[in-house]
Fold this protein.
Amino acid sequence: MRKLIPVYILLLMLVAFYFYQVKDGLTVNSTTNRERLQGASKDEYVMVTFQAGIDYWKKALKGFEDAASELNVSVVYRGGAQYDAHEQITVLEQVIARKPAGIALSAINPTALNDTINKAIEAGIPVVLFDSDAPLSKAKTFLGTNNYAAGEKGAEQLAKLIKKQGQVAVITLPDQLNHQERTKGFTDTMKSKYPNIQVIEVLNGEGDQLVSKKLAEELLKKYPDLQGIFATEANGGVGVADAATNLSKKELKIVSFDVDKQILDYIDSGAISASLAQGTWNMGYWALQFLFQQNQDSLLSGGQPHPLPDYVDTGISIATKENLDKYYAEYSK
């Protein structure tokens, strides 16, 4: 038995050496994989929006930049200054000419940009839609809010605030798909669940604070018993709150969308009752991750990237005076 001890010791040493080599090999391989999933600073990804200067895009851009830091790539932000489809098409054409590694796009109109989006894809530039979709384009992945469901939530919130009866109105952007869906979710829910609530008007606020204010003032004068207004975007919500404040309509219940500084301040003062907060950081972060993955797949599989999901719901929550601190903290990041 003693004669076998050196043999056992030798066998144990060989087994230990084998596992050490395997472990070392796995470590090297995983490091290689991690390096493979890193880009280069010369790889430029572009986010394209409209009304580029508004606060709404800040969280989405932050998510885009955070993903870029993880992946070691560069990002650029571009967008039209106005709410104008022709301007956004021009910006998108300019971006395509730069031949970026990928484009994250929020489409101002569900059909107007299709030819330009398709041009980018045909040129080999990956395109992911976020926030507002162009479903008939060749860009097949959309990241954003389930806008119909968000409209339903808006209706339920406003119905609760006005005790399930009275007149309400909607101020929206009827040419933009995400706002169409929010409005439909709202009006369908009021019709099916709240028979004592009447949606008296659906108006185009043009995504503009002053236009929305003027419309709200006209509504409040025309319908003195108006109980509530649903605004499907932040500028509209602020404009409605301005109108209610100017006309001393403190009893008017306003449900808005998004959580920029003005919206949060109006919730704090009580002028806005609630606002639907979108997962905009998620939109930007995952848009870049998906674009990067498309490029990695193309490199590793000879130009045949794996298909991305058609739709990713980036979530929604409701900001009220009771949970306002949470949203102020998130907004300040």
Remarks:
- The chain has two domains: 44-145+280-315, 147-277.
- The two ends are 70 Å apart (CA to CA).
- The chain is about 50% helix and 20% strand.
- Residues 5-36 form the longest helix (32 residues).
